Backbone:
């Protein structure tokens, strides 16, 4: 009779573990796509394999948005977000046109009633165009929250939409020196601020403080470069326009605007251009799926 060594059970265990390891590796080698898909399932994804999202937003509710910006977008079947304050003359005079704009798929966003801003900037510069009664220094947090709530009601009367996004007026979020960001979270699905940057990281983004680039007198090429930055980072680029081809004291030429739009249209396979509400709905659902 052959005598088995005492270490046999241990040797068998080692062989068994080696077999398991080989079997796992073999499976991985047979289906290389599986681990890539699993990896993708854990990372932030844009719809239809896009690499980045772009939002074109237009502030202050002026006629040029109805007559120039929106037609430029519609020529290539893109849609934008239009932030009109309740005191906008265009909104009062051409309400049916604004309603029709939303019916064609654009977004009408909240930009307050009276367009309050900080009047005296931290560097001492004074916004002389702003009437003192609409200076954020003289507001309270509850006052701006109440104003934005009424603006939501006004806009719902125009377009019938129960949900809204917000664009901070002058990108300011202090009333009486106090932040009102937390107070207004329940009023909006998302909110856009300034900062002149792309979104750095979709996971850590505060959806009520989404950065944007306030474009004034810039070329189409410079705006395309901004989009490419977001493509490289896999995040989103938000543009804050005021006038397009005139009509405001902050303008971008129509030619530059069209150049950007042509680029977005030509690269639909990798850039998703949507309204701010649409893109932020996707951001919220992706973040929910990924658990952050
Ligand atoms: Zn504004």
Residues:
């Amino acid at each position: 009779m052959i005598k088995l060594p005492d270490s046999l059970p241990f040797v068998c265990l080692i062989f068994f573990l080696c077999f398991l390891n080989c079997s796992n590796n073999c499976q991985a080698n047979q289906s290389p796509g599986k681990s890539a898909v699993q990896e993708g399932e854990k990372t932030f994804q844009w719809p239809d394999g896009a690499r980045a999202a772009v939002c074109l937003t237009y502030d202050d509710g002026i006629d040029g948005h109805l007559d120039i910006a929106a037609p430029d977008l519609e020529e290539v079947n893109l849609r934008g977000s239009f932030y009109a304050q309740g005191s906008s003359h265009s909104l009062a005079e051409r309400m049916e046109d604004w309603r029709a704009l939303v019916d064609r798929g654009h977004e009408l966003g909240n930009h307050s009633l009276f367009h309050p801003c900080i009047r005296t900037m931290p560097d001492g510069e004074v916004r002389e165009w702003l009437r003192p009664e609409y200076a954020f220094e003289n507001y309270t947090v509850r006052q701006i929250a109440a104003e934005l709530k009424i603006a939501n009601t006004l806009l719902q009367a125009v377009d019938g939409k129960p949900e809204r996004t917000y664009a901070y007026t002058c990108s300011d979020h202090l009333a009486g020196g106090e932040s009102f960001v937390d107070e207004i979270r329940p009023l909006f699905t998302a909110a856009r601020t300034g900062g002149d940057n792309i979104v750095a990281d979709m996971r850590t983004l505060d959806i009520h403080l989404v950065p944007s680039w306030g474009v004034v007198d810039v070329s189409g090429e410079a705006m395309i470069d901004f989009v490419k930055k977001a493509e490289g980072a896999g995040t989103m680029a938000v543009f804050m326009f005021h006038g397009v081809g005139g009509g405001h004291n902050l303008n971008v030429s129509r030619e530059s605007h069209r150049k950007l739009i042509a680029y977005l249209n030509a690269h639909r396979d990798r850039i998703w251009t949507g309204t701010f509400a649409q893109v932020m709905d996707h951001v919220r659902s992706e973040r929910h799926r990924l658990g952050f």
